Amino acid sequence: xxxxxxxxxxxxxVLEGHRVEVWPDPGPPSAAVLRERAAECDALLTLLxxxxxxxxxxxxxxxxxxxxxxxxxxxxxxxxxxxxxIWVTHTPGTLTDATADLTFTLLxxxxxxxxxxxxxxxxxDFGHWSPTAFLGLELAGARLGILGFGAIGRAVARRARGxxxxxxxxxxxxxxxxxREGAEPADFDELLATSDVIxxxxxxxxxxRGLFDAAALARMKSGAxxxxxxxxxxxxxxxxxxxxxxxxxxxxxxxxxxxxxRVHPGLVGRSDVVLTPHIGSAxxxxxxxxxxxxxxxxxAVLDGREPPDPIPGSHPQRATTP
Length: 322
Ligand code: DGY
Known about the structure:
alpha/beta, Rossmann fold, 5-stranded parallel beta sheet, globular, binds (2R)-2,3-dihydroxypropanoic acid
C-alpha cells in the first residue's frame, strides 16, 4: 500500500504483515508519482489534496481501497471508484470537536477584531486606552446561522449556546428535535437575512459550490461576518473580497480556500479577516484518530472484510448514493 504523506501514527501499529510505503516528503507526491505508485499497490491512503479520478484508477489495476484521511471526500471520483469495484472510505467522527473548536477560534477572533488589535499591541506601545477603539460584536445575544447541521454544525451550536448566542440552522435533511442543540431550523434566505455571523458546515457538492456568491453575500445582514471551516469553493472569494471592501460584511474567518493552497490575494492584506491554512482537524488527538481509522479501513479490505467506514454509495455492493 501507498500512503501519500507521513502520518502521526506508525502504519505498522495497525497494519501487520502488509508492505507499506510512506511518501517521505512534507509536500504531496506529484500526480505522476501518485499514478506510478497506484499502478503497483492494492491500497492507497490519500489526503484531501490528492486527486483520485478515473484516470488514476484506470492506472491501478490491483487497487482495492482508497482510504481518505478526511471526513470530506470531494477529491475523489466516487462514481469512477464504484464502477471499478474499489472501496472508498473516510474518517467520520474523528474531528468533530477539533473543527468546532477552530470554528469558534475564528468566530471569536473575527468578532473581536483580533488581527487589528493584536497588531496594535505588537507595536510595543499602543498609545492610550480608548472607549471607541476596536469595537467588536458581543456574542451573547448575537444571532449565529449555521449552514449544514451534521456532527460539526451541531458541535458548533453547542459551543454557541454556551456563549449565549441565538442559533438557527439550515440543513438539507430534517433534524429530529432532540438533536437540534437548542437551535431553530430556518431556510437559507432567512439565515442570510438575519444572522450576525454565518458559519458554513456543509459538504462541497454541486449544489453548495459557489453558494455564497455576490448575490448571497448581498442578501446577508449588513455588517455580518462569515466563517468557513468546511470547503473553500462554497464561497466565491472574489465576491467575498468585494463584500468586505464595500463594508457589506464586517469580517470573515477562513480555514479553507477556493484554490488551496493558494489564498486569494485580495484577502491576504486585510485586517478584517482571519486566515488559517486548513487546520480544522489539526489537534494531535484528532489527527491520530484519523490515521488509525484510515488504516483500519485499509486493513479490513486487505483482510477480505468490509471496511467500517465506507462512503455511502462508493462501492457496488452498497446501493445508496452519498
Ligand atoms: C476533512 O476531514 O474533510 C477536513 O477538511 C480535513 O481534516
